Amino acid sequence: MRQFYESWTPYIIGSPSATQLQESEIGSPVATQIALPKLQMSFSSSAQEIESAHDFLSISFSHHMEILNKTSTLEERWFYIQHAAAYKWDKYKLRDLLKEDLYHHQSAMPNNFLQTMPKRVQAFKAIEMFKDEYLLDYVNVEELGVREESEVDEKVVENIIVQNVKNFIMTFGRDFAFVGNQYHLEKFGENHFIDLLFYNRELACLVAVELKLGKFKPIYAGQLQNYLCILDDEIRKPNENPSIGIILCQDVNKPYAEYVIQQYNSPLGVATYKTSADLPDNLRKALPDIEDLKGLLSKDSEE
Prior knowledge:
Blueprint: H1 2-8, E1 12-13, E2 20-23, E3 29-33, E4 38-43, E5 46-50, H2 54-58, H3 61-70, H4 74-87, H5 91-99, H6 102-105, H7 113-116, H8 120-129, E6 133-136, H9 154-163, H10 165-172, E7 176-187, E8 190-200, E9 205-211, H11 218-235, E10 244-249, H12 254-261, E11 268-275, H13 281-286, H14 290-302
Parallel strand pairs: 6-11, 9-10, 10-11
Antiparallel strand pairs: 1-4, 2-3, 4-5, 7-8, 8-9
Helix pairs in contact: 3-4, 3-5, 9-10
């Protein structure tokens, strides 16, 4: 209890008032009023005030001690508190995830999910689901006879992904269904086309993916925000959650992308992708040839 007190006291603004019991004429308590403290959670150089202590108080003392004993930073503690409260983890599930170091293995993809998605549980699921980088090793521009990078455009990569959509879905994550490419949207006579559109059963929402060559640019976020607004207005069904947008580009300045997308009110994320041509020579040589690998698998199955 002393460890708990000393760990959290610096971050509590004021102190909770004592429980006040109003006694009836016969002396039994008829009402209980508890003032919850505001928590000042310091993240890096800025401070985020948590207006409600709901998450903090909704997990057990055993949960808190597991977290305090197996984490080293405030950000890490708050991550596990929020997730334990949202997902209703028992202390054994929490213990396993602490052992797996979930905090340091979560998605590092720049996103604004927690700020823009109405349900925190869904926001946490989205954060855990999307990676910050995807390996599209089946996108081999050399096989297309393309000699210069400038000869490759987004349509080339998009077409290869469509031809290998099963591989892309397996790379992208679980519970994705392919809806279409160059998906047509129309609003007030203006036509728009989403590069790739998916539906995710786990998140119960449409996921729009925009492919971009080169480095992330702020204009990409504005374009995708517009697509998501039209998707939600014209395509999304009443039982579905707001659509999510993912920008897939070859390079990104993560702090800058994070700063840019916080200005938008639709769920956005920025991830990077690598093709087979982007792999270092030593790694490319280490990977087995796809035809050789198929032959080995066929041989093993026959035996």
